[in-house]
Amino acid sequence: MNTADKIAGWVSVLLSNPVVGMVFGYTMGLSETQSAWGFSDQGIAVLSALFLGIFPYVGALVYFLAGKTDIYVSKREQRPALFLVAAPPMIFGALYFYVRGLPILSSLLLLMLVESLILLVITTRWKISIHVSGLTFPLTVIWVRDGITALVGFLLLPVLMWARVRTGAHSWAQVLASALLSGVMTYYGAVTFLPSLK
Predict the structure, then answer these.
(1) CA torsion 94→99→105→109, rounded to 10°?
(2) Second label for 2, Cα 20 to 30 Å away, from 74, 97, 110, 140?
(3) Residues spanned by the domain of 177
(4) pLDDT, one tens digit for every residue, the chain (198 residues)
(5) Rounded to 5 degrees, what are φ and ψ at 146?
(6) How many other C-beta atoms lie within 10 A of the C-beta of residue 125?
(7) pTM value?
């Protein structure tokens, strides 16, 4: 394995959905509790990190530990079932945060659920990049809230696209389509249905 392949592998790990989702969820948990309650609640931040970063991908981890797939679930045919397994934690998390009076976290999980279901339909026919979608989602939300902050993050997007193509996981068409689709869905959802994000 040459240096470029190793770099692509590490980028794929560091910018994977659980890692990105945990960081995003944790910071959003701190931000919303500060706005809603006047202090940053560490417990909510950790729960937010789990619901946005870990729980939706437990099915993939179970598949991997059982030896049924690689850590990225590279076979398209195995992915649809994992989308369905990811739905209940998103629904439960959305309800939990709604009851706790945290509408942004609740709405983000519902938006994530809707996007996941759309990606599920596409995945039954075409291997769109979940990695790229998983990075585009939080970056777009951050952009809606504070465009300047997101600009730095968006520089990571072409790096991740290159890594996913370099590892042979996706074609350029698949990563570009994922970024475009996720960006449009998230932006539309955040601006239209989540006015509290603006």
Answers:
(1) 10
(2) 74
(3) 3-197
(4) 699 889 999 999 999 999 999 999 999 999 999 999 999 999 999 999 999 999 999 988 888 888 887 778 788 888 888 888 899 999 999 999 999 999 999 999 999 999 999 999 999 999 999 999 999 999 999 888 877 777 778 889 999 999 999 999 999 999 999 999 999 999 998 887 775 655
(5) -155, 90
(6) 8
(7) 0.91
